[in-house]
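cron nightly-structures :: item 1 of 1
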Amino acid sequence: MNELSLKGLRISHSRYDIALNQMLEAIELAGSDGVCIPFLGPSRVGKSDLMLAVESKVAKIRSGPGYMIPSPDFLSGEISPKPNDSEIYASIIRTMGRVGANPKLALLKDRMFDLLEQRDVRIVALDECSHCAEPGANLTRRAAADHFKTFVDRSGVILILMGLPKFQRLIDENEQFAARSMATIELQPYRWTNPDDRNEFTTVIYSIFEYLEERGFSLEFDWIDMTRRLFAASGGRIGMVIELLEVAVRKSAHTKALALSDMGKAAQIRLQGLSRIAPIFDPEPPQDDVLLRSYAKVMRDAGLQLPDPNSSLELEAFRTPNDKALAA
């Protein structure tokens, strides 16, 4: 019997659907002159899953003028940490083959553009673009923006840049690159104190629970209580919920039963810094302030501005420094 997995499970929800439709519309309207589409959001919020859905909808198989073997016109890759000037182009070449040993920047550029033309590539999606906006990068934000600008100008390709919201600084600081970029598409976590967000998050979690039950799993916990706990563990990120449940399902594959204790064991394995987190999967449920602090930490870590608080409890949660955001 094949082991049940939640990996690759695509669950429709409002923020996902809005971002997906925005991305499809942007690609449709991008034209053929080369343009950048920034796609930003916190880690584990679901950006990669959404991009797989985009690729499945828009990618086509082509035989380029210099490449006899039919290949997709949609390429996906990622930028390595601490990138230098060459890495921008090497990251794209890696989606098509080997980069080679220490090539010169000019040769690297020419090879990349030749490969794109030979294969008739229409779209390139690069993840981890925010590495270019981090202090440890081996090139300036200005230089990175100029490389992306050169890429879209010379290739005529649609360049989708995915990463953390800090990448927006790179766009805002370069007027010429901003002029070549379509409106930034964002995918943000759900907010517990917003009734619409809370209802949507709950609906998504319930759909996952129903999926597990349909495949023979016994869920030995209260769904409402577990939904609150999963929000506290994820800060409102659906992608993180799926990853946490994936670990729990794998550990419980032999019994096909999930209890509160199983979720606690999965959290110990999957969640970073659990010892610093207020009790989430203890018998006593987490208080509301833990959920609010979890959301605030995800937003802060991603460099996103927190919304105006709508209660004194949320105001206090938003004021809490990062290192104490989830402390008991």
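cron nightly-structures :: done
The first strand starts at residue 35 and ends at 40.
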